[in-house]
Amino acid sequence: MPRPTVAHIDLEALRHNYRLAQELAGSASAMAVIKADGYGHGIRAVARALADDVRCFAVACLEEALAVRDEGLEQTVVLLQGVHSEQDMVTCACLGFELVVHSDYQLDWVLNSTERVPVWVKVNSGMNRLGYRPSELPVVMGRLAEAGCVPKGFLTHFASADEFDSPATEGQTEAFRGGVAPWPELLLSVGNSAAHFRAGQPLFDWSRPGIMLYGASPMADRNATELGLKPVMTLESELIAVRTLQPGDSVGYGQTWTAERPVRMGIVAIGYGDGYPRHAGTDTPAWTNGNRIRLIGRVSMDMLAVDLTDAPSAQAGDKVELWGCHVPIDEVARHAGTIGYELLTGVTARVPRRYHD
């Protein structure tokens, strides 16, 4: 029998979340972001599941774009980091990929190429990672025009859209709008997941929903249920041992948790070797037999301990949900001092994904 740890993927929940993103985008079209192996859900399965709804996918790199084509899908695929080698320009031209250009060396590759690949120009509106500042756009556009290359559009990325009270997103929007104003005929793309939930936020022609597609909240102070999102991944394992600890008994490495009374404890077959966060310590929620329970002690590589006080009938062999429909991933992330993005993309390859419609 295989080890009982598994990640169940609800493809209908994925489609629900995409359709919500498209509804919130209004007149803009929603470009589904499926980078990082579909945020840990499996890029091939995610792309197939969304194929009937999505006209354009966004990925980070060429390898991810190739995975979409390997599934026989013909949707437009945008490489958000562009290519990392000049030789890849030919592949992109042959397979119909669109490139984001964020630096002069990539611009040189585009201009030197005998192949004409559709490009988006990345605008640095204030995040200060990649892209051209608005003041640099006339030079970039001039070089493209001299070579007879008309870009498809401009895009930018927001730094603080998850914070409702932050003025940064409005400032970035205006910087972007002003910078691209001389080229009104080109398409514009802004709007990560969080931007979809900001009242009055313009999303222009293309939005780019990512984490919201997978059912985690993109907002700092609102949970996924409040936003109408459905969890896509349920991370599940089993109890492989149940025993009673006596007062004074400690559990796990470092003996960081000690029983003050008799406690029924369960051991679950999952750990940081599976991608469950090591820093999710005592009091992190889990769920079994219709009851919420809590972790105790430190997470090990292949197992963790739970307090079964609130699940008195639980026995070895019972299923345990680590996150999913009953335990929001964002709640687990808060206990671990991280975000849902990291947890989803961190589930390791030894955890099989099982897909359900």
Which residues form runs of ≥5 with pLDDT under 50?
Answer: none
Number of domains: 2
Relative strand content: 15-25%
The name of the CATH topology of the largest domain is TIM Barrel
Averaged pLDDT: 97
Domain Alanine racemase C-terminal: 232-356
Binding site for substrate: 129, 301
Pathway: Amino-acid biosynthesis; D-alanine biosynthesis; D-alanine from L-alanine: step 1/1
Modified residues (N6-(pyridoxal phosphate)lysine): 35
Walk me through what this model shows.
With 357 residues, the protein is an alpha/beta fold. The chain folds into two domains: 31-214, Alanine racemase (TIM Barrel), CATH 3.20.20.10; 233-356, Lyase, Ornithine Decarboxylase, Chain A, domain 1 (Beta Barrel), CATH 2.40.37.10. The protein has ten helices and 19 strands. The longest helix is centred in the N-terminal third of the chain and has 15 residues, at 11-25. The mean pLDDT is 97.
Structural descriptors:
357 residues; Ala_racemase_pyridoxalP-BS; eight-stranded mixed beta sheet; alpha/beta; Ala_racemase/Decarboxylase_C
Can I get a quick summary?
With 357 residues, this protein is an alpha/beta fold. It contains 10 helices and 19 strands.
